[in-house]
Design a protein that fits this description.
The complex is a heterodimer. By secondary structure, chain A is of the alpha+beta class. Chain A has helices spanning about 5-20, 40-50, and strands at about 25-35, 60-65, 70-75, 80, 100, 105-110. The two termini of chain A are about 30 Å apart. Chain B contains 8 helices and 8 strands; from the N terminus they run E-H-E-H-E-H-E-H-E-E-H-H-E-H-E-H. The chains are: A alpha+beta, B alpha/beta.
Chain lengths: ~110, ~230
């Protein structure tokens, strides 16, 4: 449900930046979404459809780039991609506390005119 | 496309498209406020703890017990609910100094709401600030509030697989309280199963078993909090 709050923040940042650059239309927004960000991609898209319904959003396409989780195994000294939400090293079975990527919630760029 | 109606005609007045690089975390504003909150908590010599659980698992009952037993000084509590100030009233009756946040339709506390509530709290003589989040295992996890410790609470009636279903919360928690342990037997609670599930989802977290109703097991939690005060 917090997807709505996040989309409101996304729209606030994007609109502020578009205005600063003299743009009136936002064509697309690219958002990187980590698997561990706690955000559901579908709920995020639905929230965007609700919040971003009027100008300058009428033609805006929200592009989500999903980021897989990567952890570091301190025993193997290697990076690994866990198979599920348990961060267990695929080589030695040790549990990792170090998440290198997967928590992203990053507004990367947008295309405007 | 003209950009107005999708008529596939190029609009004579259309300005050229260009790309703007942003590279901003959507939670940046919250993160910044959370850092400011922590500075405030530090300046007031407070240990701040963010308490997260599902509705009805015993957050307020735990805080009532804690308020009664904490010692000479009261505990401070910032408590979030969608509506009512029932929890703040309960906590004040137990001796806590409480400020209620009514979030309306917001499913989590954010750093800004906590900053405003904190400004209403009389912090004189306090050493512990408990922040009782809105009952929810998903959304509060994403919003740091400036806390020094994050505490996840789960009760024996909720099922042993909760840590597997909501790994983000348990993975981010410094400690996990298993509440209503006095009901374990009637609830058919499988203690070994939940401990195994916590070991894989929260290998770093300390685990405590307690009953907020009877107060059993609370001493160990209080020792852990006291240890946090000294750090």
């Amino acid at each position: 449900m917090h997807e709505l709050a996040l989309i409101e923040e996304l729209c606030r940042i994007a609109q502020q930046e578009a205005t600063a650059q003299g743009a009136s239309t936002i064509h697309s927004i690219l958002l990187r979404l980590g698997r561990l960000s706690g955000v559901d991609a579908e709920a995020l898209s639905q929230a965007f459809a609700v919040v971003a319904s009027g100008p300058p959003w009428t033609a805006t396409h929200l592009v989500l780039e999903l980021v897989a989780t990567e952890c570091f195994c301190s025993r193997c000294q290697q990076v690994f991609t866990p198979v599920d939400l348990i961060h267990q090293c695929s080589r030695c079975g040790a549990l990792s506390n170090t998440v290198l990527q997967g928590r992203e919630l990053e507004l990367v760029s947008m295309e405007v005119s | 496309m003209c950009g107005d109606c999708g008529c596939k005609q190029s609009s004579p007045s259309a300005s050229p498209r260009f790309k703007i690089a942003l590279h901003q975390n959507l939670l940046e504003r919250n993160t910044r406020q959370a850092l400011l909150n922590q500075v405030q908590f530090d300046q007031h010599d407070l240990l701040a703890v963010n308490l997260i659980s599902a509705p009805g698992s015993g957050k307020t009952a735990f805080l009532e017990q804690l308020a009664r037993r904490w010692g000479r000084q009261p505990i401070g509590v910032i408590v979030g609910d969608l509506a009512t100030d029932n929890d703040a009233q309960r906590l004040e009756r137990a001796g806590a100094r409480a400020v209620q946040i009514r979030t309306g339709d917001l499913c989590h506390l954010d750093a800004d709401l906590v900053a405003r509530a904190f400004s209403e709290l009389d912090t004189s003589g306090l050493d512990l600030l408990m922040i009782e989040n809105v009952g929810n295992l998903v959304c509060p996890t994403a919003f740091p509030l400036g806390e020094h410790r994050r505490l996840a609470l789960i009760s024996v009636t909720e099922g042993e697989d909760k840590p597997l279903k909501y790994p983000a919360l348990f993975n981010s928690a410094d400690a996990v309280l298993i509440n209503k342990i006095d009901l374990a037997e009637v609830a058919g609670f499988d203690r070994n199963a939940i401990l195994a599930n916590l070991r894989v989802t929260a290998p770093h977290a300390q685990v405590f078993e307690m009953s907020a109703r009877s107060g059993s097991g609370l001493e160990a939690v209080m020792d852990w909090l006291t240890g946090g005060l000294e750090n």
